[in-house]
């Protein structure tokens, strides 16, 4: 099967098409040249035979006619025809004569056809010699008609001489010419394979280099350049590729620089905000405890400051967490845990056990980072409670290894019964700071919860996907390798 695919790919490749096109052009050229040569040679052979036969007949008539008495008798006509036929024995011709439209002498044998072709006979009666090639019983023949004049004058005597000779030798020569043309054309087509391979190699070499360069660019080697020589279109294509690669390298370098600056800025800002936020949180906590003893307006202001300070503190923590992922500083601390129990503790710690329906079978154990799985479950359930609809369902299950697929997998699923996620929003739910409603400039979260969830799942070599359930509501599915005992990812 693989061999058939390889042969099919080779046959449909550019090299094969170039060679076939080159061979077709070579074959057409060779056969067209052979055909034109054959046509010219055939015409020359037949014309030479025709001219020789006419000249010979005219010479024989000129030598025999002076001995003929006019008006000739039937016996004289037969003798005249026999003498000419005997004298031109090398021509293998058959001679017939007639006088002033009389009967043909000697008489025509049955099955030999008309001796006098209509077109030839009319021209001879007008005093002009005529020649015509005919086919008799599938064989080629040459018919010649010649008017006989008196002595050296141009006055017609009324005597007409008709000769019919076979063209067998000419046909043999023509067939030999055809065979020679074929024998010359076929080797020429065969030999054209060599220049075809050379030409195809010359065309495909820059194409292969371009493919190799493109593959290197795709792998991240942005400094890849092609060697461009010559002034043809392929050389221009290589130069264009080099210009594109150079521009791409500069743009990517600039983007990476800007991205690094952005990440460093976020990390620096979040780090610098952490200390004053800690002090602000301590002060706000003290004020919040005494809020009940303050007047209503002041108490409202204190609680509002406390709430916003808490949001700001969570945002700073999320920024620092995402900065650690960007810097590659996030590490896994694996421990073998009961997955159902770990999820149950996450819900209890946040007081969600009464709001969430669970399907947490016992005995599903895996090597995970409990703190990061806690963040994953908390973010997904919190997102479902805020933006979805109750009841929220959390389920855990283990799937065995597929025969040709990955090993055993751990699936954690969080589903709600809300309105679901807009199909236009689905591809962006894990983007940082993405908001489905651009008019909502403020929200309870930092806009980084699902992005942090995605990074934590990736850190476990897992995947996460978002979808809408057929019965309504959004479904988030986390799929992780099910490692146990001493296994590592």
UniProtKB/TrEMBL annotation:
GO molecular function: ATP binding
Keyword Kinase: yes
UniProt keyword annotations, A-Z: ATP-binding, Kinase, Membrane, Nucleotide-binding, Phosphoprotein, Transferase, Transmembrane, Transmembrane helix, Two-component regulatory system
Catalytic activity annotation: ATP + protein L-histidine = ADP + protein N-phospho-L-histidine
E.C. number: 2.7.13.3
Residue ranges occupied by any Histidine kinase domain in the UniProt entry: 268-484
Domain HAMP: 201-253
Signal sequence region: none
EC class of the enzyme, as a word: transferase
Principal localisation: membrane
Intracellular or extracellular location(s): Cell membrane
Keyword Transferase: yes
InterPro entries assigned: HAMP_dom, HATPase_C_sf, HATPase_dom, His_kinase_dom, HisK_dim/P_dom, HisK_dim/P_sf, Sig_transdc_His_kin-like_C
Protein name, per record: histidine kinase
Organism per entry: Streptomyces orinoci
């Amino acid at each position: 099967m693989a061999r058939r695919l390889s042969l099919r790919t080779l046959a449909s490749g550019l090299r094969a098409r170039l060679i076939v096109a080159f061979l077709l052009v070579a074959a057409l050229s060779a056969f067209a040249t052979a055909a034109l040569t054959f046509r010219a040679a055939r015409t020359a052979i037949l014309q030479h035979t025709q001219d020789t036969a006419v000249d010979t007949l005219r010479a024989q008539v000129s030598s025999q006619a002076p001995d003929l008495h006019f008006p000739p008798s039937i016996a004289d006509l037969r003798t005249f025809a026999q003498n000419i036929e005997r004298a031109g024995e090398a021509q293998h011709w058959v001679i017939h004569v007639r006088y002033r439209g009389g009967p043909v002498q000697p008489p025509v044998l049955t099955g030999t056809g008309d001796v006098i072709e209509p077109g030839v006979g009319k021209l001879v009666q007008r005093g002009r010699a005529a020649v015509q090639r005919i086919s008799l019983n599938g064989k080629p023949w040459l018919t010649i008609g010649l008017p006989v004049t008196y002595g050296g004058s141009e006055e017609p005597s009324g005597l007409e001489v008709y000769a019919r000779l076979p063209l067998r030798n000419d046909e043999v020569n023509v067939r030999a010419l055809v065979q020679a043309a074929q024998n010359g054309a076929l080797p020429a087509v065969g030999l054209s394979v060599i220049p075809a391979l050379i030409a195809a190699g010359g065309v495909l070499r820059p194409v292969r280099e371009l493919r190799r360069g493109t593959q290197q660019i795709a792998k991240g080697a942005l400094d890849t350049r092609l060697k461009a020589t010559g002034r043809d279109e392929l050389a221009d294509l290589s130069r264009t590729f080099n210009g594109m690669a150079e521009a791409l390298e500069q743009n990517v370098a600039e983007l990476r620089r800007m991205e690094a600056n952005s990440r460093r800025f976020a990390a620096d800002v979040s780090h610098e905000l952490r200390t004053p936020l800690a002090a602000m949180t301590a002060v706000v906590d003290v004020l919040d405890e005494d809020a009940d003893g303050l007047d209503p307006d002041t108490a409202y202001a204190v609680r509002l400051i406390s709430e916003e300070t808490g949001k700001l503190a969570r945002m700073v923590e999320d920024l620092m967490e995402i900065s650690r992922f960007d810097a590659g500083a996030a590490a896994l601390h694996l421990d073998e845990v009961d997955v159902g129990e770990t999820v149950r503790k996450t819900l209890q710690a946040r007081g969600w056990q009464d709001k969430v329906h669970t399907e947490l079978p016992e005995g599903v154990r895996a090597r995970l980072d409990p703190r990061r799985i806690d963040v994953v479950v908390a973010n997904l359930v919190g997102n479902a409670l805020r933006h979805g609809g109750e009841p929220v369902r959390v389920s855990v299950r283990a799937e065995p290894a597929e025969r040709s697929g990955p090993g055993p997998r751990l699936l954690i699923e969080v589903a709600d019964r809300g309105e679901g996620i807009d199909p236009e929003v689905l591809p962006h739910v894990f983007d940082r700071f993405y908001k489905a409603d651009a008019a909502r400039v403020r929200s309870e979260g930092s806009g980084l919860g699902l992005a942090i969830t995605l990074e934590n799942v990736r850190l476990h070599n897992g995947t996460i996907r978002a979808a809408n359930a057929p019965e309504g509501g959004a479904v988030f599915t986390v799929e992780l390798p099910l490692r146990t005992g001493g296994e590592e990812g």
